[in-house]
């Protein structure tokens, strides 16, 4: 028995959980069953995935395939060959061999499309990462979403989301890959807009869906182009497959009508899918707004599924990128995104939004690594980042959960780091695990992020300074700066959140802008406006509260509030929030300390269902990097992937450590104790208010898109509306003219033709009748007529 033979169950198990929860509606009212089925499915999928990874690491993927082929040959000799031939086709492909199974899916003309799964080293590594991270997120969600009335629906969605990602990873061809890719886009839309009755949530969901569709359409064109050239979309090196050496050589030496190499054109079109899915500049704007979804969704998108898919697309189709000259474009986009997003993160105040821009930056590291040829380094960082970023996002959810016990369900307070402080005293487990994730992300020595990030910097250094590539030099310097910024802004975050006095009881900040109120759905089917009373908890309304457009329903741990954007001089902009009672009354209400009897006035630790996943992820964030610790002589991941990684460079490692310590030290000096009150001005803002305002406002990219793309869209919509109305007027005019002509025709036909014909007929009849009187057959009548004629 081989785990590979049962790998098809890995995506099927969460898919079955989705179907089971969805189509048995009573489960929506049985929370334990819904979460239990989803978690059990993920646990089994995780065990299978790790079994596949261990078997691949010990026996090798080619060995497993050879054994399977030998077994089937023996079975064929025993008289069962036809059955096995019908079940699937076996071939070697990918990096260092692969185990594959496929079946006939559709036949059109002389082409036979096959679907199946393929397991090679990068696939096995991704399966292990995705399943474990997703399992932790599922367990965390059981506690986090406990008070949501649509608990079952949430677990059905995240099960489908995970199944789509696993199906994409296992796909043996780009068609199935793209189908699962699009299913993830659908799931992200459903989950980001999970609280659809909130204006900000459905706007963020729509923004994510439309923005990623731009990249997806271009990616689809790349698939069409690749299929036209190869006649296949199947991964593999055999003849007729897309990694075949002869095919790669042909598209790498042939130019198209645009004067570009065919391989370059295909690679750039495929890369646009990565730009959209992995939120690279300029299609990055959707990812920070995805914070509108529940926190487990943020963790799932930022760590295990959505954004990881884009990086995996480049890694999976890497031979096509190598065949052309598209990699410099990949490196430039990734490098720019890494620095751009890190700068923005420096000036954000929302705990989840800081992590969101951190994700953008780290994805830039991965993409840049792939762009300079660091295939192993890019995949290595993708794997380690998934664990410590999932840890940080779930940890931020635990922090918000604890904060809401003290400040209520107002995200303007519960998610603003300026209102936190000294949380290490109240939430020790969350603090310890969060610190592990922080140190891993900051690149602290021996933590997971240190090893993977250093490998990327070493690759860039080798390409730039050893090979003499100017691009490599730029990538190395820029990524080193981004690494320094990462250590700085993460130190800023943890210093303000876990140290200093607790500031949750401070008076509400008044430097907020007001926005229009949007009516939201209430429990009884009516509409309520933010500020309306009606929540059973007895909260009172703060007249100058940060504007809202509706709240998600939930109980004490429904801290799944929408993120607000900060911009300008500490101005909270575009705010739309969620609070509500445990019975999901969606009347928007703010809780203020001193008025809500149910608030404990102190943060508290989260339940074990939320802290257990943090502990599991912390282990991998701490020790996960040792799978490829070069100076210790450990190269397990490189050997597993069948590719050589860059040699450990003590110079780049020393520089990386110095930059990490410099960022940590500067962040600590500036922000430890910097906020004694929540209304205090940020030290960086005090030093450089203009720069801070630009960074806080995200370089104005969203506003620029609104003023250009958005305005052009509005103009185009207006023009099309005018054109549509003009067409309608013409069509209506033609209809009216036709109606008039038909009436004239009716009058002419009725009064002239019909009545004229009838009159002529009547005259003819009367004439005939008169003439008939002269032909009586009597001789005396004829004599009288002759006499009368003679007289005349």
From TrEMBL:
Residue stretches of biased makeup (Basic and acidic residues): 510-519
The entry's keywords: Membrane, Oxidoreductase, Transmembrane, Transmembrane helix, Ubiquinone
Single GO MF annotation: NADH dehydrogenase (ubiquinone) activity
Residue segments, region Disordered: 510-537
Entry's localization field: Endomembrane system; Membrane
Enzyme Commission (EC) number: 1.6.5.3
Assigned GO CC terms: endomembrane system; membrane
Record's signal peptide: none
Residue ranges that the Swiss-Prot or TrEMBL entry lists as coiled coil: none
Limits of the NADH-Ubiquinone oxidoreductase (complex I) chain 5 N-terminal domain: 105-155
Transmembrane segments: 6-24, 36-54, 123-142, 154-170, 176-197, 257-276, 297-315, 327-347, 354-380, 428-450, 470-490, 614-638, 650-671
Topology class, membrane: Multi-pass membrane protein
Protein name, UniProt field: NADH-ubiquinone oxidoreductase chain L
Species name: uncultured Chloroflexia bacterium
């Amino acid at each position: 028995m081989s785990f590979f033979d049962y790998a098809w169950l890995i995506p099927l198990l969460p898919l079955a959980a989705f179907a089971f929860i969805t189509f048995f509606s009573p489960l929506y009212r049985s929370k334990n069953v819904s979460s239990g089925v989803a978690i059990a499915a993920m646990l089994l999928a995780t065990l299978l995935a790790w079994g596949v990874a261990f078997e691949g690491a010990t026996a090798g993927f080619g060995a497993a395939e050879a054994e399977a082929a030998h077994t089937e040959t023996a079975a064929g000799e025993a008289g069962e060959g036809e059955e096995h031939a019908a079940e699937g086709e076996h071939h070697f492909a990918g990096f260092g061999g692969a185990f594959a199974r496929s079946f006939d899916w559709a036949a059109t003309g002389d082409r036979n499309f096959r679907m199946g799964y393929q397991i090679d080293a990068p696939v096995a590594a991704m399966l292990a990462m995705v399943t474990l991270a997703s399992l932790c997120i599922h367990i965390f969600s059981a506690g986090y979403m406990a008070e949501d009335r649509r608990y079952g629906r949430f677990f059905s969605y995240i099960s489908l989301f995970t199944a789509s990602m696993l199906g994409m990873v296992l796909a043996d061809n780009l068609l199935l890959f793209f189908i699962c890719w699009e299913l993830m886009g659908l799931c992200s839309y459903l989950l980001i807009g999970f609280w659809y009755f909130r204006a900000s949530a459905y706007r963020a969901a729509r923004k994510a869906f439309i923005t990623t569709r731009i990249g997806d359409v271009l990616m689809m064109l790349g698939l069409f182009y690749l299929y036209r050239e190869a006649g296949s979309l199947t991964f593999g090196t055999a003849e007729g497959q897309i990694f075949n050496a002869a095919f790669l050589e042909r598209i790498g030496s042939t130019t198209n009508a645009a004067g570009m190499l065919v391989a370059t054109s295909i690679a750039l079109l495929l890369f646009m899918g990565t730009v959209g899915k992995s939120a690279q500049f300029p299609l990055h704007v959707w990812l920070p707004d995805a914070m509108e979804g529940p926190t487990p969704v943020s963790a799932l998108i930022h760590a295990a599924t959505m954004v990881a898919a884009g990086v995996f697309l480049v890694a999976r189709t890497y031979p096509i990128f190598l065949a052309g000259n598209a990699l410099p474009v990949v490196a430039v986009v990734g490098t720019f995104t890494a620095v751009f997003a890190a700068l923005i993160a420096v000036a954000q105040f929302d705990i989840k939004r800081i992590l969101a821009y951190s994700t953008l930056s780290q994805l830039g590291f991965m993409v840049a690594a792939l762009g300079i040829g660091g295939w192993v380094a890019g995949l290595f960082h993708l794997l380690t980042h998934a664990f410590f970023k999932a840890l940080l996002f779930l940890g931020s959810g635990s922090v918000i959960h604890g904060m809401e016990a003290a400040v209520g369900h107002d995200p303007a307070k519960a998610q603003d780091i300026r209102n936190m402080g000294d949380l290490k005293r109240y939430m020790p487990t969350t603090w310890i695990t969060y610190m592990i994730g922080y140190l891993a992300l900051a690149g602290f020595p021996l933590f997971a992020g240190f090893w993977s990030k250093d490998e990327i910097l070493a690759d860039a250094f080798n390409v730039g300074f050893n090979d003499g590539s100017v691009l490599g030099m730029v990538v190395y310097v820029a990524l080193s700066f981004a690494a320094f910024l990462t250590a700085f802004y993460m130190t800023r975050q943890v210093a303000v959140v876990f140290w200093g006095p607790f500031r949750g009881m401070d008076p509400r900040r008044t430097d907020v802008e007001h926005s229009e109120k949007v009516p939201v759905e209430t429990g009884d089917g009516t509409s309520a406006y933010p500020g309306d009373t009606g929540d059973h908890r007895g909260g009172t309304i703060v007249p100058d509260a940060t504007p809202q457009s509706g709240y998600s329903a939930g109980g004490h741990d429904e801290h799944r509030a929408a993120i607000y954007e900060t911009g300008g001089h500490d101005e909270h902009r575009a705010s739309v929030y969620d609070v509500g009672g445990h019975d999901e009354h969606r009347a928007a209400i703010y809780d203020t300390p001193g008025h809500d009897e149910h608030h404990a006035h102190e943060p508290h630790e989260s339940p074990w269902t939320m802290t257990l996943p943090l502990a599991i992820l912390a282990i991998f964030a701490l020790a996960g990097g040792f799978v490829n610790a070069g100076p210790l002589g450990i190269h397990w991941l490189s050997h597993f992937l069948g590719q050589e990684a860059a040699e450990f460079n003590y110079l780049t490692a020393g520089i990386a450590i110095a930059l990490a310590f410099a960022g940590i030290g500067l962040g600590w000096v500036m922000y430890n104790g910097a906020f004694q009150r929540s209304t205090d001005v940020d030290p960086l803002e005090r030093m450089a208010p203009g720069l801070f305002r630009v960074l806080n406002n995200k370089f104005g990219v969203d506003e620029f898109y609104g003023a250009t793309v958005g305005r052009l869209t509005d103009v185009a919509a207006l023009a099309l509306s005018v054109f549509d109305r003009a067409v309608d007027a013409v069509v209506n005019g033609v209809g009216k003219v036709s109606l008039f002509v038909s009436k004239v025709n009716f009058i002419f036909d009725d009064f002239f033709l019909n009545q004229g014909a009838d009159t002529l007929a009547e005259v003819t009849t009367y004439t005939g009748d008169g003439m008939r009187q002269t032909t009586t057959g009597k001789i005396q009548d004829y004599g009288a007529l002759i006499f009368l004629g003679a007289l005349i």
